[in-house]
Amino acid sequence: MDLRDCAKGLRSEATEAERAMWYRLRDRRFMGLKFRRQVPLERYIADFVCWELKLIVELDGGQHIERAAYDQRRSQWLAEQGYTVLRYWNNQVLQEMEVVLEAMRLWVEEQKRPSPPAPLPQAGEGRQA
């Protein structure tokens, strides 16, 4: 089975937490951002991807405790490709959705904040006319 077929299967067999998160992210419901779900990225499948911000949101169930090393390698590879990975536990999403969304909102706001302007030259500095 190729990665696309696997991703399609994951979309049809979403966990309760994935369904709840998708409800909040789909149709640009979260801050007007376009997300896709179960997206193949070369050798991995990301739960939710926002191309505009190169943001990946991953939801982890209990099985991820045993796969911590794999998840770390995966996150490192994704970071090398320019993505930021935000990870949340399934129970966080199901029990504290607003807290999770607020953490995501704060991250997005930080990315969209323009960098501060360069300071103006002090008296006596700069080119003289």
UniProtKB/TrEMBL annotation:
Pfam families attached to this UniProt entry: DUF559 (PF04480)
InterPro entries: DUF559, Endonuclease_DUF559_bact, Restrct_endonuc-II-like
Coiled coil feature spans: none
Keyword RNA-binding carried by entry: no
SUPFAM superfamilies named in the record: Restriction endonuclease-like
GO molecular function terms attached to this record: endonuclease activity
Domain DUF559: 2-104
Record keywords, A-Z: Endonuclease, Hydrolase, Nuclease
CDD domains noted in UniProt: Endonuclease_DUF559
The protein, known as: Endonuclease
Classification lineage: Bacteria, Pseudomonadati, Pseudomonadota, Gammaproteobacteria, Pseudomonadales
